[in-house]
Amino acid sequence: MPNPETLEVWLRGPLPNVPPLLQPVAHALLQAREELTAAMRTFPAALLNERPAGLASVGFHLQHLSGVLDRLFTYARDEALSATQLAALAAETPPLPIQADSVTQLVSRFTMQVDKALAQLQTTAEASLTQPRGVGRAQIPSTVLGLLVHSAEHTSRHLGQLLVTARVVQSGK
What we know:
Layout (H helix, E strand, L loop, with lengths): L22 H18 L17 H19 L6 H9 L10 H21 L9 E4 L4 E4 H28 L2
Antiparallel strand pairs: 1-2
Helix pairs in contact: 1-4, 1-5, 2-3, 2-4, 2-5
């Protein structure tokens, strides 16, 4: 039997207190957090704004990962975005102001956002998953489940883009 810590999160079994239908969302978010933390451990802050071939920068993805989780989970709670959230959205536009600890701060922000998302998943009743929710100012129709699943999918997509971009900019090509 392999060491459980070397398995992907979804193969480690159910997470305590997360409703069964929301386990895949929680697993995806935890997997993203583990991969992001590992990949960014030695990433130099000086490369955060690099955009090889015009791709979105690692800094953009790091900010967007946290921000989009916050926004999608807000919509799932049937709440409007706050002024703070709208300001954070506007701040996702590169370039990022860079400090020596920028990478650590951005990874910590994502870690905290995943913790908040997991706490919300634990209190989300499965009976609420088909309830309608509006997305954005236009109130585009979705559901609680649609928003939560999209948050996991969107996180995974941006993580993949971040990982590729990080490798490219670190290779100097």
